[in-house]
Amino acid sequence: MFQSFDSTVDPSVGSARCAALRQELARLGLDGFLVPRGDAHQGEYVPPADSRLEWLTGFAGSAGMAVVLADEAAIFVDGRYTIQVREQVDTSVFAPMHLIETPPAEWLEGALKPGQRLGFDPMLHTVAATRRLQTACKAAGAELVAVAANPVDTVWTDRPEPPLGAVTLHPETFAGEPAKAKIARIAGEVARAQADALVMTQPDAIAWLFNIRGADVPHVPLPLSFAVLGANETARIFIDGRKLSNAVRDDLSKLADIHEPAELLPALTALGKTGARVMLDPDWAGAALETAITGAGGSIVEGPDPVVRAKAVKNAAELEGARQAHLRDGAAFAAFLAWFDTAIAAGPLDEITVAERLEAFRADTGKLKDISFDTISAAGPNAAICHYRVDRHSNLTIPQDSLFLIDSGAQYEDGTTDITRTLAVGDVAEEARRHFTLVLKGHIGIATARFPIGTSGAQIDALARLPLWQAGLDFDHGTGHGVGSYLSVHEGPQRLAKTGHVPLQPGMIVSNEPGYYRTDGYGIRIENLEIVTPAREIAGGDRPMLGFETLTLAPIDRRLVVLELLSPAERDWLNAYHHRVLAEIGPLVSEDVRGWLEQATAPL
Fold first, then answer.
1. Is 337 helix (H, G, I), strand (E, B) or coil?
2. CA 240 to chain centre
């Protein structure tokens, strides 16, 4: 099993660990300290050795921050985790705050007192975030103080060792472009930005650039590392050498000079001493990196890492790999759905059993490298927690006459998948079926959208919400995220969300996953992955339009559809989608599964 169901969350640890941290802060002459969820790479995927926020508070979500002052402490999470944080954290120690409605910097302005010293680890806070914190401290008459050693690490006596996942080469068959060609292409972008070098901090971008993959974090093949790419096409990668076999080292050394991670800051200092203009992304690079460069006399060229945008636009080989991965995954998922219907009718099932069986069906493909994230196997009220993770304590038996939500994905060498389906168990109440249909209408609104070149995800996001809005409903997460190619299941810069301001480009892959969540009741989400398709003319139109090609192939539960709520066009879309699912997945499944699939995809 790639997924563990053992719980490491314990709200009771918060009080003692917070007290130990305060004692260490007092020893250092600090009046408070900031504990972000991220690591030095600022990403979503954090190894156990860097899971400081979870260790301190018990919170296991993918985004958040704690602020510990001498007389109060708070934990900041976004709308996905407002329920989860209260279950995992001792709220008598850490007051839950909304990350968006009351950002930490805003909260600090009111909480800090003149003359106080607030500590932070400059490797764990981006350049942009540090500026906001400095402004807040200045407004409160306090001082933001960079620490050389993180005090959380000092009191975390049983901290795990850093990961040493083996690095592998990603074949050009799947990558679609030699690493040397990628390096030349990105070096050209650095030169056009009038910079001498680019500092890369995101491991998925480094993996893409050098055509390598790693095993440092759960479920995502990331090699935790940094890189510096010169405008003259010279490259340096900063990675623990113990992760490299002789063969991988030989190949990688043809592309870049290999250094240990501890050499990064000295290398940036040396670069600064030459007066170099160094490109970095202030929204991703740690403040310590900027300080090393500018403190030595260099200057910063601020801008998005050009690798991130290049990586998001998949080439022909990557797109074909994604299609093949989704065919394989769709067949496995259809077999799972057929099993689920039979098993739930024969007797009770629990959340863990369902997650285990789904992983087993994917493993039966013989191609599964890992799951792409911990499966969200959620019954009843657990499904109302957007990012619920089942463990042996929370594991529920799936009740009859209810909704069951399953959000899962797989890592194959040719592509990454992510799919959510909401399933009927017995006779589902009319209200829940109506809400399901409203979510489906929003899903279809995205899938059928046509939009001009230059349109961003923020402009499209409302299409998924409109049917819910008209009923006085909404959901508190984005409608879609980017997806990598045997890389991160959550990839930027593209998003279908209110904050998604990057224009969509042909070749980008995004998820389409509107939902609805009734606290303590049920959760609904329908998710497919979509490729942004090239512009094409529409008869009678005066400009070409982009659109979406649906990658994911699996039935949407017809039993939950309130037919009269669908327009004729929406009904036709669902029937056409199901016809395609049967045509493409049917030949890949067993005879028994084929019989189930024919019923599940029958026209409405």
1. helix
2. 24
Instruction: Name the more confident of 99 and 193.
Output: 193
- b vs e for 229-264, b when ≥16 Cβ sit within 10 Å of the residue's Cβ? bbbebebbbbbbeebbeeebeebbeebbebbebeeb
pLDDT in tens, 360-370: 999 999 999 99
Domain limits of the chain? 13-155, 168-312, 316-596
> What's the mean pLDDT in 162-187?
98
Q: How far apart are CA 255 and CA 265, in angstroms?
A: 21
**How far from the centroid of its chain's Cα atoms is residue 313's Cα?**
17
**In Å, how far are 92, 126, 284 from 502, measured between CA atoms?**
40, 20, 16
Which residues, other chains included, contact 498 with Cβ-Cβ below 8 Å and sequence gap of 6+?
Answer: 458, 461, 478
Mean pLDDT of the 424-443 span: 98
Q: What is the CA radius of gyration of the chain?
A: 25
Cα–Cα nearest to 188, from 224, 239, 230: 230
Q: Which CATH superfamily is domain 316-596 in?
A: Creatinase/methionine aminopeptidase superfamily (3.90.230.10)
Q: State pTM to two decimals.
A: 0.95
- Residue 169 has φ and ψ, to the nearest 5°, of -85, 135
DSSP secondary-structure letter at 561? -
Classify domain 13-155 by CATH number.
3.40.350.10
pLDDT in tens, 556-599: 999 999 999 999 999 999 999 999 999 999 999 999 999 999 99
**pLDDT score recorded for residue 525:** 98
Place of tokens 């975390």: 156
Q: Do the domains spanning 13-155 and 316-596 agree at the CATH topology level?
A: no
CATH 3.40.50.1110 corresponds to the domain 168-312: no
